[in-house]
Design brief:
single chain, mainly alpha, 13 helices, 2 strands
């Protein structure tokens, strides 16, 4: 790790020399996600990783260079657009995952994140929501990147939705000494305008953006081809990534009582079920007991397998399983 200071906080990032490519916020993000995942499985010790996660999180937060909500991608650069389809969503997901894990711990004095870091993550994520939702709504994401941009944006802002909803419920029940606006705006680095924006963002606002992204997925060329049964040219990664997002979108829709949002679940489910069928057929392309059996090929015709694609597919299927459990509990 390379250590540095930003806003008087201890920060770190993975070394470019170690990575053999320029270090960026996604490298830090996946290390954070790996650590929080291992902590949830109790296969590593919290005390040995608190400083590492906290400094990596601070390193990512330092890349919101002007508190605009836009994260610079590569350390040492101010460019917020190169890799915007992937890296900011991955970084925000890692920050919010670490935040949620830290909040889950019963002993707040032994949290994963320091109070200083914990207090700035949600305001930073709200500013990011305002920036990236505006970027998308201005038509800056083409059909080619729809599944990828939407996937990471949906995954990270689903976490923000959950956090904001929890804060809203806490304020309504009066279980907290801090009001909803106070919790959101408890950031020394936010200027007045950012704080006002943060105070005005609600969980339904975030949900609306998530649904826009999910709607874009199911109307994209690849997903229309999926529904027509034209599978030979479809890339597994595009369907797996889109499925991750659709499962999250459907689970958010289930948390609303309005008929319009209930219709979202009905709209997404045929696409979700078809995508699961597609992944099963892709998996069946490799004969049992052959090298790579159980893995997922790049396409129906190209048998090359990638670990990251398998990760997307497994994550998507786990989300679909959770979705079906939610559907059964509402019947």
């Amino acid at each position: 790790l390379v250590h540095f200071k930003a806003d008087n906080r201890d920060c770190s990032a993975l070394s470019t020399k170690f990575l053999e490519e320029p270090s960026n916020i996604a490298h830090s993000a996946f290390l954070i996600l790996a650590i929080t995942g291992a902590l949830r499985l109790s296969i590593i010790d919290l005390s040995e990783h608190q400083i590492v996660v906290n400094e990596l999180a601070n390193g990512i937060l330092a890349m919101d260079l002007d508190d605009s909500g836009a994260f610079a991608i590569h350390f040492g650069s101010s460019d917020v657009y190169r890799g915007i389809e992937f890296y900011p969503g991955e970084a925000l997901l890692s920050l919010l995952d670490a935040y949620q894990y830290s909040e889950e711990l019963e002993d707040s004095s032994n949290a994963l994140l320091s109070k200083a870091t914990d207090s700035v993550i949600v305001p930073a994520a709200v500013r990011a929501f305002l920036f990236y939702s505006d970027y998308y709504r201005c038509g800056n994401v083409g059909d080619r990147y729809t599944s990828f941009f939407s996937n990471w944006q949906v995954q990270c802002f689903t976490r923000l939705f959950e956090i904001l909803k929890q804060m809203e419920q806490t304020e309504q029940t009066g279980d907290s000494n801090m009001g909803f606006g106070t919790m959101l705006c408890n950031s020394e680095t936010s200027d007045k305008e950012s704080k006002e924006c943060a105070h005005n963002v609600t969980s339904p606002d975030v949900a609306e953006y998530v649904f826009e992204l999910c709607d874009a997925i199911i109307t994209s060329t690849s997903w229309q081809q999926l529904m027509k049964g034209h599978w030979k040219s479809l890339a597994t990664v595009e369907i797996a990534c889109g499925l991750e997002a659709l499962a999250d979108g459907a689970m958010i829709a289930l948390q609303f009582s309005s008929a319009a949002l209930s219709e979202k679940v009905s709209a997404y489910m045929p696409f979700i079920e078809k995508a699961v069928d597609f992944l099963g057929d892709i998996q069946d392309q490799v004969p049992p007991h052959a090298v790579g059996s159980g893995g997922l090929a790049h396409t129906m015709l190209v048998k090359e397998q990638r670990l990251d694609v398998t990760g997307h597919a497994v994550n998507a299927l786990v989300k679909v399983f959770s979705l079906h459990q939610m559907l059964q509990s509402t019947e």
